[in-house]
Amino acid sequence: MKSTKPPYRPWITLMALFFLSSAYPQQELTAREVVKRADDKMRGNTSQAEITIQIVRPS
Question: Which residue in 18, 22, 34, 50 is a FRET match for 3, CA 20 to 30 A apart?
Fold first, then answer.
């Protein structure tokens, strides 16, 4: 015997997913905030650098 699914089942699933996703508020980020968060993740909590400085003084 062939099982038949109701034709509205995919729509019910899609609507449920839509309502569930809209139940949790989404943060609206600006481009500046996205770049800052990516930069913060890349840098981590600590930074190290090896620097050479040339000081030129007038004589």
Answer: 18
